[in-house]
Design brief:
CATH architecture of the largest domain: Sandwich
CATH topology of the largest domain: Jelly Rolls
Number of strands: 33
Shape: elongated
Helix content: under 10%
Structural class: mainly beta
CATH class of the largest domain: Mainly Beta
Length: about 575
């Protein structure tokens, strides 16, 4: 028995020795091949915090004095990267979805220079030297060898002119490491036959960023003004701009895709003055057409087409609250135009004041995206009485998720009130009812909902020193008689946006009108909603109430509040 054990151990040791020798011979063989090869493939794995990142390896394809970086998974990439060692330049080639190709040619010596260090390491049988790069506060360590004929790097921003890069470490925790060499196959030669449009680096980076998401243009420098006769086309045509309320509302029926789980939807609205010098209320909204009556009826045939409520003060307020047969507009973005941006830039010249060309408002509207698919009516309102008015452009930006989100619940949305009188110039009343009343709406909440919340947006307007625009007021939200939320909507950062407001009035104390703090808005900004969580909301009939201590009228001046409320939840499928 003892002899048998000794023999087994001896056999095992011989086997291990033979395997180790075979591995060393194989390593020497690969090293010898890679040392002299002018055509080869280098494979790399990536590690994050010491753990290998799943997926096929990144490959560096070297063909004589040219190199091509093949990204992981061998999937078709929008951007391809090449190195030309004859010309000592890199090429980044981007092909857009529409077939357009853009190329950035960049000399090796235009990249950030690395610090050559004395450290050495052995990787795949080669002695590697070390260089360190600092790129936008990132420390990048590069290990490269000069013992090979071939040159290349798996990252064109570092080490292209050093030799063959076999390891890159970013910030000490993200590694790209060569794992082996192979003979290059002829079908791997992928040098482009043509480079398309050659552009500079800023233009190329713009194309790269924009290629990563999908953009749908809704409006393009459409005019929102007052008093211009603009006839509307017949019917409800797709992709045609309609003008309503004397031209202060533009609307368009568009077809929108369904947002995939885990993705994000942003609205980007660009505005500039086309003649109007004042700060104005603006609203981007969707018009629900799911009930017998919709706000589209009011836009087409007058404000009396929608349900109205009568306040204790005797005034009639049209289309502001939900009923069994009517859904108010779904506000996507509340914004405020600055004082005369662009149109008045050259009329107001102050040293050190570099006026903006336009105001850009960008907001994440993903929580509302489930109401924005298929054929949808979108509209933009800017209250003004100017023939030139304003110009606006609107894009919807669809950003893919980092990974597909799996969920068994579907978003649920119910707009329940919106007091912004977007048909102000066609007779819709200002919301002045808070002087004697609270805003009250009763709705029927369906069963099967989770994580219900009220998305609430509020801005105060009217008057000077005594008006609610310039005085903090507490808002209280009640659900079935119980207060569930209270806050004071207020902005104290309006001076930040002075460069958007060339036509703003200046006071004797050095302040500008656009600098003044206001009730949750500033000229040139958008107003963010607050989310009021109603976790224990049960199915059935519920009453919501909004209470605001609205100020009293002073002479010809009065205060009013634009508030909108949308219930959002998750419905199990």
């Amino acid at each position: 028995m003892k002899l048998r054990r000794i023999l087994l151990i001896a056999c095992l040791l011989c086997t291990l020795t033979y395997a180790a020798d075979a591995q060393r011979r194989n390593t020497r063989s690969r090293t010898a091949f890679a040392k002299e090869a002018t055509q080869l493939t280098v494979k790399y794995i990536t590690k994050s915090n010491g753990k290998q990142v799943p997926g096929e390896p990144l490959q560096l394809i070297i063909h004589h004095q040219q190199a091509f970086i093949l990204p992981p998974n061998n999937t078709p990439q929008k951007e391809q990267q090449y190195l030309d060692y004859n010309k000592k330049v890199s090429y980044q080639v981007l092909t857009r979805a529409n077939g357009q190709t853009f190329t950035l040619e960049k000399p090796f010596d235009s990249y950030v220079k690395g610090e050559l260090l004395k450290d050495t390491a052995h990787i795949l049988g080669f002695v590697c030297k070390k260089a360190k790069f600092m790129i936008r506060s990132n420390t990048i360590e590069v290990w490269y060898t000069t013992e090979t004929v071939a040159k290349g790097t798996p990252n064109i921003t570092v080490g292209a002119d050093l030799g063959l890069v076999l390891k890159i470490v970013r910030n000490g925790n993200y590694e790209t490491i060569a794992t082996g060499f192979e003979k290059m196959q002829q079908d791997q030669i992928n040098w482009p036959k043509q480079f398309g449009q050659m552009v500079d680096e800023p233009a190329y980076m713009q194309q790269v960023i924009e290629s990563r998401y999908n953009t749908i243009n809704i409006f393009k420098e459409d005019q929102i003004s007052w008093g211009n006769e603009t006839p509307n086309p017949q019917g409800d045509q797709l992709n045609v701009t309609y003008h309503f309320a004397g031209g202060t509302v533009i609307a368009k029926k568009v077809h929108l895709p369904t947002l995939q789980p885990g993705s994000n939807l942003f609205a980007t609205l660009t505005q500039y003055s086309n003649g109007d010098a004042y700060d104005r209320t603006g609203s981007l909204f969707m018009i629900p057409v799911d009930k017998n009556t919709s706000f589209l009826d009011a836009l087409k045939n007058g404000i009396k087409q929608v349900p109205a409520i009568t306040g204790t003060n005797g005034k009639t307020y049209q289309g502001m609250v939900a009923t069994d047969n009517y859904t108010p507009v779904l506000e996507l973005m509340r914004f405020f135009t600055p004082f005369g941006v662009k149109h008045f830039n050259n009329q107001v010249k102050i040293k050190g004041y570099n006026w903006a060309d336009s105001a850009v408002y960008k907001q994440d509207i993903t929580p509302l995206a489930s109401s924005l698919s298929g054929d949808v009516w979108l509209a933009v309102y800017i209250g003004n009485y100017d023939k030139g008015g304003h110009k606006v452009s609107l894009d919807f930006n669809y950003y893919p998720g980092f990974e597909e989100e799996k969920t068994t619940r579907k978003p649920w949305i119910m707009p329940i009130f919106n007091t912004t009188n977007v048909m102000e110039m066609a007779g819709q009343e200002y919301c002045t009812l808070f002087d004697k009343d609270s805003l009250t709406v009763t709705v029927n909440v369906p069963a099967g909902l989770k994580n219900v919340q009220l998305r609430y947006t509020a801005t105060g307007h009217g008057g000077w020193g005594g008006g609610d625009e310039f005085n903090p007021k507490q808002h209280e939200i009640f659900l079935d008689g119980k207060r569930v939320y209270n806050f004071v909507p207020w902005r104290e950062d309006c001076g930040t946006y002075r460069m958007l407001n060339p036509a703003s009035g200046n006071f004797g104390n050095g302040l500008s009108s656009s600098d003044l703090s206001r009730s949750n808005w500033c000229p040139g900004t958008l107003t963010q909603p607050v989310n009021i969580y109603l976790y224990d909301l049960q199915p059935g009939v519920h009453t919501f109430k909004v209470a605001i201590p609205q100020g009293k009228p002073e002479g010809g001046s009065f205060s009013f509040w634009n508030v909108s409320g949308v219930l959002i939840g998750e419905k199990e499928s």
